[in-house]
Amino acid sequence: MSAKAKSLPELIQILEFESSKAIRWFQNNKMIVNASKFQAIILTKKKEHITNNLIINNEVIESKLMVELLGISIDDKLNFNTQISNICRQAANQLNSLYRFNNYLDSYSRKLATISYILSNFSYCPLVWHFCSAKSKDKLEKLNNRAFKFLNQPNESLQTTLEIKRLRLIILEIFKTLNGLNPPFMNDIFSKSVNRSSDRFCNNLKSFKVEHVTFGKRSLRFIGPVLWNSLPQNIKDSKDINKFKQFLKEWGNPGCPHYNKFVNYCTALSI
């Protein structure tokens, strides 16, 4: 449940009212609500951190600077430093354990263990924390390279970085949205441009402008159209998801002209 407002008192009022409605729905459907387990967080563009109390079902809920949601640590500035640190710590500990058993593992077992225990950490809800800081991204890439060195495949880690893998996931989500394979709410994020009448640009996405240079560009709503519109026309016209996934396997690899086009777009927009 989320809400937005121009002032903190208005925000608290909206959240308390909407929460009360949700609790009544639970009670009417003979379900038990434990308000003491509720979590709250207040996000703001300003530099300072905001915490406040909410009264929900006669329980005082204190907003926090960070909450846990389905295994993801979400902080009030959405920099995801804590989440990245947790990922790196868990993956590094598991990798250290594998190194101790390195002499007892053949190449297949080594690869299976690395994919299952190490690389799986990087693939859990990656689009949520994709727009983390450059420092956090660098930590992830270094650990990814170390994992491939364990496989005696250091060159492979340079071909496909974790960031490129996440960009491929964004492209795939856009494809699913445009072809009706995603929930309807995704249409609010990715939608076709209505001002394009030519066949050449009919499958391009609507671009979004940001009012402030420092706020808004690091978002799916902004980067998605840039990413999608950089693809070749025949790929954007495709309706076959298997063919589309096959294209993504090569997208972003060294020398890929379509990835270079995307990079040029980003450079021009100073993303």
Using the CA coordinates, give the radius of gyration. 22 Å
State the major sheet. Answer: 2 strands, antiparallel
Could you tell me the strand content as a percent range?
5-15%
Helix and strand pattern: HEEEEHHHHHHHHH
Quantity of strands, as a count: 4
Task: State the strand order across the main sheet.
Answer: 1-2
Mean pLDDT: 87
> How many domain regions?
3
Structural class: mainly alpha
| Total helical elements | 10
So what's the overall shape?
globular
Q: Uncertain runs with pLDDT below 50, 5 residues or more? A: none
Compute the separation of the termini in Å: 30 Å
The helix content, as a percent range, equals: 40-55%
Please, could you describe this protein's structure?
Helices cover 48% and strands 6% of the residues. The model has no long low-confidence stretch (mean pLDDT 87). With 271 residues, the protein is mainly α. Helix 2 (81-100) packs antiparallel against helix 3 (107-118) and helix 6 crosses helix 7 (220-229).
Structure summary:
This protein is mainly α and 271 residues long.
Helix and strand arrangement:
Elements (H helix, E strand, L loop, with lengths): L7 H21 L24 E4 L2 E4 L3 E4 L2 E4 L5 H20 L6 H12 L15 H17 L3 H6 L2 H17 L41 H10 L3 H5 L3 H8 L8 H13 L2
Antiparallel strand pairs: 1-2, 3-4
Helix pairs in contact: 2-3, 2-4, 6-7, 6-9
